[in-house]
């Protein structure tokens, strides 16, 4: 894991290596004057964010327009007690990069994470390259820069090309051009301040599982003209087919949210507000 390098830099925990899409999302939210605290797993990200000495905040992917929700990350969020203080919707652009000066015809192998390779099959099928799956897109870029191999290309982010001084020989080679990932910005509850202009909230709750109990909650939310942008269910471990729910709600006035919470609290057995923040924009 990285340590803070400069006095004015924010330490932001991310999953993956420098040059990853998580780092791009972190820079989008916090600005480029931040230091990426690279973590091997999402569980490690949570641990680092919980430790005030190691980080100022963290970034964690939560869903993708192609792959859907990252369910284990919802569970990590709910158990951690961390709060959502923002979000970033990032268009995932996959780029083929090589060491500087290497022509396309010299490439024999392309290395990247399996998901990145799958996202680029239409372009890759036009060539007879050997495809090599790796554990991380940014790590592939880092290894290529170190090896100086003139016959290997990697698929990674534009940021990875900048960090490792690689040449983007074929940018934007992903097949699906509308591939967005939603990243959550997380912080410790004691460090959260009220966000001016907040218009979105994430809550977690479960009901007594009686007939129509979920519908009653959703109807109350609808009564105050709040838009339900996400409803995700999770089985409650050890229960007899009972479920908890994560809900994202969009509102125009914070009073709407408070009114909704007042109305649904008596209808739930447990209710937690995981964050009140500003809705992200597509980047």
UniProtKB/TrEMBL annotation:
Coiled-coil annotated residue ranges, if any: none
A single MF term (Gene Ontology): prephenate dehydratase activity
Domain ACT: 202-278
Site (Essential for prephenate dehydratase activity): 181
Catalysed reaction, written as an equation: prephenate + H(+) = 3-phenylpyruvate + CO2 + H2O
Entry keyword annotation includes Amino-acid biosynthesis: yes
Keywords from the UniProt entry: Amino-acid biosynthesis, Aromatic amino acid biosynthesis, Lyase, Phenylalanine biosynthesis
GO BP, sorted A to Z: L-phenylalanine biosynthetic process
EC number, UniProt record: 4.2.1.51
InterPro entries the record matches: ACT-like_dom_sf, ACT_dom, Chor_mutase/pphenate_deHydtase, Preph_deHydtase
Domain of life assignment: Bacteria
Any one cellular-component term (Gene Ontology): cytoplasm
Boundaries of every Prephenate dehydratase domain copy: 11-188
Metabolic or biological pathway, per its Swiss-Prot or TrEMBL entry: Amino-acid biosynthesis; L-phenylalanine biosynthesis; phenylpyruvate from prephenate: step 1/1
Matching Pfam families: PDT
Name the record gives this protein: prephenate dehydratase
């Amino acid at each position: 894991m990285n340590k803070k390098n400069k006095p004015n830099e924010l330490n932001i925990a991310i999953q993956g290596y420098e040059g990853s899409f998580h780092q791009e999302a972190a820079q989008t939210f916090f600005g480029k004057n931040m230091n990426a605290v690279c973590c091997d797993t999402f569980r490690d990200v949570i641990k680092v964010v919980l430790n005030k000495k190691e980080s100022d905040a963290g970034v964690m992917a939560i869903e993708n327009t192609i792959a859907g929700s990252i369910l284990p990350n919802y569970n990590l969020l709910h158990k951690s007690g961390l709060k959502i203080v923002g979000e970033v919707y990032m268009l995932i652009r996959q780029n083929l990069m090589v060491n500087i000066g290497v022509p396309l015809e010299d490439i024999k192998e392309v290395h990247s994470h399996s998901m990145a390779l799958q996202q680029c099959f239409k372009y890759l099928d036009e060539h007879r390259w050997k495809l090599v799956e790796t554990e991380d897109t940014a790590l592939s870029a880092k290894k290529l820069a170190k090896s100086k191999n003139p016959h290997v290309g990697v698929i990674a982010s534009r940021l990875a090309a900048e960090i490792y001084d690689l040449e983007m020989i074929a940018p934007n080679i992903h097949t699906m051009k509308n591939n967005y990932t939603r990243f959550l910005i997380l912080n410790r509850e004691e460090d959260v301040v009220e966000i001016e202009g907040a218009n979105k909230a994430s809550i977690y709750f479960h009901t007594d599982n009686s007939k129509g109990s979920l519908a009653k909650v959703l109807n109350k939310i609808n009564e105050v003209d709040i838009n339900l942008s996400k409803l995700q269910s999770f089985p409650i471990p050890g229960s007899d087919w009972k479920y908890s729910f994560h809900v994202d709600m969009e509102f125009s006035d914070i009073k709407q949210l408070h009114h909704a919470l007042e109305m649904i609290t008596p209808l739930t057995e447990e209710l937690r507000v995981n964050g009140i923040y500003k809705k992200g924009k597509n980047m």
